[in-house]
Amino acid sequence: MCGRFAQYRSMRDYLRELDSEQDAMSGWEAEPIQRYNVAPSTQVQVLHSTGGHLVVAEVRWGWAPNWARGKMPPPINALLEKVATGKFFKQIWPHRALVAADGWFEWVQDEDNPRIKQPYYIRLRSGAPLFFAAISQMPDAGEDTSDGDGFVIITADAEGGMVEVHDRRPVVLSPDLAREWLAPDTTPHLAEQILLHQGTASWEFEWFSVDRAVGNVRNNGPELIHATGPFHHIIE
């Protein structure tokens, strides 16, 4: 996952798709978010559960433990294969979150000209919102964010034909698994099993080329997700 995604619907739309029995507390608005080019290190609306309620908090995309800060840019993604057992994310592994989104971008290098990279937009073939599995350090309810707050998106090996656009992809959870991922009674072991075995299958996605303007983080607008080439997907 190269590090850009779209989050343009309203949080009300995402919460409706999630259909959680947990009440959503304040911290979100009904207006469309209208972000078509979400970039690392920016503040992003992220869902997490606290005290039996869903909370929407704006936190930075990227996180590192205290001992690693300043040594390198904070990672924005965590490898599924290591996230539950490695020491880097040990502090936040128990703190599960969801990133509600509409799709993400990947860049493919041109075989004839390595200097040129063609961006592709990937989304569910159904057109429904999707939920990235994430872990985070969040502010307490009603508190402002601190320098240590942030989140990372968990990524898995890209299966089958999705390798054409990238060898990694975010772990996307269906609404029922997304609810289970956030549930307070979901054990760390069960959470790991959800990641390992129950992410949305590759054949449920489609992708297509888009304008290279998405490569500039200052650009934002629905034209960034308009197809400039044919649609692709994996045959089930």
Walk me through the structure.
Belongs to the SOS response-associated peptidase family. There is one protein chain. The chain is mainly beta. The protein has a single domain, classed as Alpha-Beta Complex (hypothetical protein yedk fold). Helices cover 13% and strands 32% of the residues. It has helices at residues 11-18, 80-83, 175-182, 188-197; strands spanning 4-7, 35-38, 43-50, 53-60, 77-79, 96-101, 103-109, 117-124, 130-137, 150-157, 168-170, 172-173, 205-209, 232-233. The strands form two sheets. Strands 3, 4, 5, 6, 9, 10, 11 and 12 form an eight-stranded mixed sheet that branches. A hairpin with a 7-residue loop joins β7 and β8. The model has no long low-confidence stretch (mean pLDDT 89).
What key phrases describe this protein's structure?
236 residues, mainly beta, eight-stranded mixed sheet, 14 strands, single-stranded DNA binding, hydrolase, lyase activity, Abasic site processing protein
Quick summary:
With 236 residues, the chain is mainly β. It contains 4 helices and 14 strands. Strand 3 (43-50) and strand 4 form a beta hairpin.
Domain count: the total is 1
In what range is the share of β-strand residues?
25-35%
CATH topology: hypothetical protein yedk fold
Radius of gyration: 17 Å
Average pLDDT level: 89
Q: What is the N-to-C succession of helices and strands?
A: EHEEEEHEEEEEEEHHEE
Number of strands: 14
Structural class: mainly beta
N- to C-terminal separation? 22 Å
Number of helices: 4
Helix content: 10-25%
Largest sheet properties: 8 strands, mixed
Q: CATH superfamily assignment?
A: SOS response associated peptidase-like
Tell me, what is the CATH class?
Alpha Beta
Q: Which blocks of ≥5 consecutive residues have pLDDT under 50? A: none
Shape: globular
Q: In CATH terms, what is the architecture?
A: Alpha-Beta Complex
EC number: 3.4.-.-
Protein name: Abasic site processing protein
GO biological process, one term: protein-DNA covalent cross-linking repair
Keywords: Covalent protein-DNA linkage, DNA damage, DNA-binding, Hydrolase, Lyase, Protease
